[in-house]
UniProtKB/TrEMBL annotation:
BP GO terms, sorted: regulation of canonical Wnt signaling pathway
Name of this protein: GSKIP protein
SUPFAM superfamilies noted in UniProt: Hypothetical protein c14orf129, hspc210 (SSF103107)
Chain segments carrying region Disordered: 1-24
Matching Pfam families: GSKIP_dom
Ranges of residues in domain GSKIP: 34-134
Gene3D superfamilies: Hypothetical protein (hspc210) (3.30.2280.10)
GO cellular-component term (any): cytoplasm
Family named by the database record: Belongs to the GSKIP family.
Length: 140
């Protein structure tokens, strides 16, 4: 089983806006923090799932955003993104189920790794292809 908590292609998630109080003065900027983070999460792994997008139905806030994902196995999930990480909050798009007590994952990679064997395979193959390309570059 491949551990994917440490992704070599991962960009730092902290944009620095959180600490910079000057950005708080712009109207609506605080509401976009987690939405921007959620968009980055989607862009990072969209290639390895069937469908993934930030929910437009569920409310985004400074501290929470919701992401809909459909795995290659055709399973649908609604994910909650907070400072604590990501977790499944429902087994369909744009839903939350307060009775679900699913664990938080530090990264989208470990969450998808636990939900989707097909994701694991596609993601692993992408890393292998990238390593092969780097190997060829270093040999030339």
């Amino acid at each position: 089983r491949m551990e994917t908590d440490c992704n070599p292609m991962e960009l730092p998630g902290n944009t620095g806006f959180e600490e910079d109080s000057d950005y708080r003065d712009f109207e609506g900027t605080d509401v976009k923090d987690m939405r921007l983070e959620a968009e980055a999460v989607v862009n990072d792994v969209l290639f390895a799932v069937s469908n993934m997008f930030v929910s437009k139905t569920l409310p985004c806030a400074e501290d929470v955003a919701y992401i809909n994902v459909e795995t290659r196995e055709r399973n649908r999930y609604c994910l909650e993104l907070t400072e604590a990480g990501l977790r499944v909050v429902a087994y369909d798009f744009d839903q939350t189920d307060d009775r679900l007590q699913t664990p938080y994952h530090e990264t989208v990679y470990s969450l998808l790794d636990s939900l989707s064997p097909a994701y694991r395979e596609v993601f692993g193959n992408a890393i292998l292809q990238r390593l092969e390309a780097l190997k060829k570059e270093s040999q030339s």
